[in-house]
Amino acid sequence: MIGVTGATGQLGRLVLEGLRAAGQGAQTVALARRPETVTEPGGVTWRAFDYERPDTLAPALAGIDRLLLISSSEVGRRTPQHAAVIAAAKAAGVGHIVYTSLLRADSSPLSLAEEHRETEAELARSGLPFTILRNGWYTENYTGSLGASLAAGAVIGAAGEGRINSAARADYAAAAVAVLLAGDHAGKVYELAGDEGWTMADLAAELSRQTGRDIPYRDLGEAGYAAALAEAGLESWLAAAIASWSARAAEGALASDDRSLSRLIGRPTTPMAETVRAALAAL
Questions:
Q1: What is the pTM of this model?
Q2: How many CB atoms lie within 10 A of CB 55?
Q3: What is the tally of helices (H) and strands (E) in the chain?
Q4: Which of 104, 29, 26 is nearest to 64 (CA)?
Q5: pLDDT above 90: residue 56
Q6: Given 2, 108, 219, 234, which residue has the most CB atoms within 10 angstroms?
């Protein structure tokens, strides 16, 4: 029996699709804060699972052999939330936890890395068998704002000429499914990233090619990018965080030559151009 936390999230939904496609749907438990809002249950069992209610977690994990712990979306609350899930998994007799961490979490300069490091340490202390999937950046982190780029006539950021080895969210979901369905990944730490690196200028060039417009990349520097994001309506703390991640990309934080992701999924990772095409089609 496989459990998937964050099952209504963007990554969680793709993992559920992959498990169903592999014939695992009847042996899958989808864990979500509000499962009653799910309109298409999709042949899996749904259970309420709220990171902020630790006393309810262990009963929801009853009978689960392998648990995919998808990192919480609540930055700043991840460490206690993840610790509660790990403790509940141990109490419930879960046999193996697979955790979605961050690319090179042990050394990454990204502000996001600390909570992932703390969670990885908590897993090591738990005594439970575990596998770490250190996910790199999702290409959708960038293509989600292509509409704004088209409206503004430019792609903006602070990544300079830094290489970004992103992959599609579906690639990372496929890797999680592969690990959940196999039995030989305990104790492994996988650095997951896209096969082909690209720069923000490359993204702008691809957007220009596919739209037939001239959309340049404008590097605003960290402070300038944060100001632009705040002016666009983001909360100041979030604007500053996103700008800092972009600036760290300029220093190589999102680049990787590791090919573990394509090896796990048995195919090349999704090219950036393909994710751009899908995003434009959805506008």
A1: 0.96
A2: 8
A3: 12, 9
A4: 29
A5: no
A6: 2
Residues 161-185 pLDDT 10s: 999 999 999 999 999 999 999 978 9
pLDDT of residue 35: 87
Task: Let me know: does 29 contact 2? Beta carbons within 8 Å.
Answer: yes
Contact call for residues 30 and 192 (beta carbons, < 8 A): no
Q: What is the CA radius of gyration of the chain?
A: 19
Q: Looking at the structure, tell me whether residues 113 and 210 fall in a common domain.
A: no
Amino acid at 132: I
User: CA-CA distance, 273 to 202, in Å (whole number)?
Assistant: 10
With tokens 């050394």, the residue in question is 107
Number of C-beta neighbours around residue 229 at 10 A: 23
Provide the CATH number for the domain around residue 92: 3.40.50.720
Q: Domain range spanning residue 95?
A: 2-135
Q: Are strands 155-157 and 130-135 parallel, antiparallel or unpaired?
A: unpaired
Do 282 and 159 lie in one domain? The reply is yes
Q: What is the pLDDT at residue 39?
A: 77
Measured distance CA(157)–CA(246) in Å, rounded: 6
Domain count, the chain: 2
Confirm whether 119 is domain-assigned: yes
Domain membership flag for residue 94: yes
Least Cα distance to 27 among 61, 73, 64, 60 occurs for 64
Task: Give the C-alpha separation, 126 to 29, whole Å.
Answer: 22
Beta partners for residue 97, in sequence order: 67, 130
Q: What is the dihedral of CA 27, 31, 34, 36, to 10 degrees?
A: 10
Domain presence at residue 74: yes
For residue 129, name the pLDDT band (cuts at 50, 70, 90): very high
